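Raw record, unedited: Phage integrase SAM-like domain-containing protein
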Amino acid sequence: MEGKLRTVENIKKKYFGEEGKLYSLEDIFEYQNTTCFSKLSPNTSRLYITSQNYVRRFIKKEYNRTDYYLQELDYSFVLRFDNFLRLIKSNTHKGNLQHNAVMKHIEVPPFVRQFLA
């Protein structure tokens, strides 16, 4: 009901009153779009939106969901997302995304670290 994962650890935290908010990728996107975009150039903002859309498409295709909690992120997620990016066709160029473009879409922006702590 609270939109949180049901794990033994989360139930224990709830019972002992130690729980914190579980952040999702959509929480990060919302924070980024409302807080950071005013400080970015239009081109950088456009690229962030493109990365967000790639992540959303990946989660929908691979997990049949609309969001993903940060606590769920693991190396497997990153590898699968990398593979997904290498197989999709670029909207602006002919052919698949090249290595450097894939790495830029996978890169974690510095402000996200506050959500991971």
